[in-house]
Amino acid sequence: MGDQPLPAVSDDVIWVRLAECPVADAVRHDLVSRFRDAVVTTAELPERAMVGLVIVDDDHHEAIGQAAGRNAGAQQSILITAAKSAHARADFVLSADVDIDSITSVVNAAKDFHDQVMNLKSEVARRKSAVGTILRGEFALRTLDEARNLATMIAHACPNSDLVAIGLQELLINAVEHGNLEIDAEMKQALLMDGKWREEVEARLQNPEFSDRIVTLSFQRSARLISMTVQDEGSGFDHERYNATNGAAVGYRGRGIAMARELSFSSLTYLGAGNVVEATIVLEPEA
To answer: Whole-model pTM?
Structure first.
């Protein structure tokens, strides 16, 4: 399957730039069969098209940077590479000998993440706040759905609520997933590749070893500052090492923490063993 004619403009496309080979042909065929005109395989993007997911190989790695200028929001990237050290930053880095089933599972995971964030932004825009004047409070949650719902609610008490919702959701989900449920990055990578991540999360939520653990969110607002502290009941992680590295050369590179730090908060600080994180938002003085 060669380059397609330019499709009609979509505001959220999947851009696929892969050299001809059986696996690449299978990837393109699968995506077109599921997402139809939202899939773009041309060297140039249609005018005004925005990119939610970009999939590239070594010959086309520069498309990741090009796609960044057409970010539909929560953009995800997948790099299929034969290089021992990947030369382009991507959310998922897969080896060149990866099979089509694993690629499909990773595409589904990347698309799910993108769609969840976009849906969250829409939900924040639609939802009327019941907590706009909250000054302080403490909340407890256990599941990923509760994390998303709480992030949406609390974001309405903050400026730039759609961006805060994205960052806060990631902090709360990390606390559930990596903290309380003890699913580390290597395990998550394997689960995503096998298409079994959600199944494992649900199983651990029912497992007596983890089922009683909660995540707490403390919220406090003053005249100049909003402070949110998220604490889980896991054993923590080496956050200093995480901050010092760009992640493994091959595998899953979760960007939740980076997104929270870059988009949502004035500061983000992990404390102690890493199972407590404090996020702050500096409030602009009222005119």
So the answer is: 0.74
